[in-house]
Every structure is written in structure tokens, then in C-alpha cells.
Specification:
Length: about 130
Amino acid sequence: MTKPTLLFVCTHNAGRSALGAALARQRAGDRAVVLSAGIDPAPSASAATIASLAEIGIDDSAHVPTKVTEELIRTATVVISMKPGLDLPRIDGVVYETWDLPNPQGWEASAIRPLRDHVGDRVTDLLDQVAPA
């Protein structure tokens, strides 16, 4: 069986989608391929997001925000929009999910913790569906 590819997308690929992808990578291990991208990528990842991940033992300091492309979406099994209203190409055969999450831009790491934990729970549920252990 082929491993599913999960693509987490938000506006800047600096906060929400970076968080989702890092948590999914940690929890999926080799059960899934995990990618992330943004509609309008920021120059760098959110330092507070990286710090909130470090608190739970995930080093995502090498994350570089990436632009979402139709080609990238074509590689995905599931595309997770981390906010409603993202204008993404619709590709037959790709499953799309929308998670309505607040934008953590400008938040401190301590403020991101509840969002990180919520995203982690959603990631676990998604992995249970598409890449059971």
C-alpha cells in the first residue's frame, strides 16, 4: 500500500501549516509523507511556532516557508487548509479538508500552546483515518 501524502496549507506557511506538518511528521513516522506550503509564503517561519514545537521535543528550526503549487497539490492524498477561504486548485482524486484555526501571527510561544495541542489532536485523528498504525 502506498503511503498517503498530507499537505498542510495556510496563508504564509509560517505558523499554522508549519505546526500541522511538524506534528504530523512526528506522529506519522514512516506511515505518511508530510508537506506544507502557503499561498503567500513568509520570508521565514514564525519563531514562536518553532519555539512551541521545541517545547515538546520537535526541532523544526530548518523550516522554510514554501509556495503552494498545483503540482504540489497533485502529489497529495489529503490537502488540509488550515483556514477557510484559501484559493487552491481542485484536483480530482485529492481529498480536501478545511480546519478553521486562528492565525497565530504575532503570538508568543505560550499563546500558541493551546493551538499546538488542538492541531496535534486533529492531526492524530487524521492519521488514524488515512494512515492507521
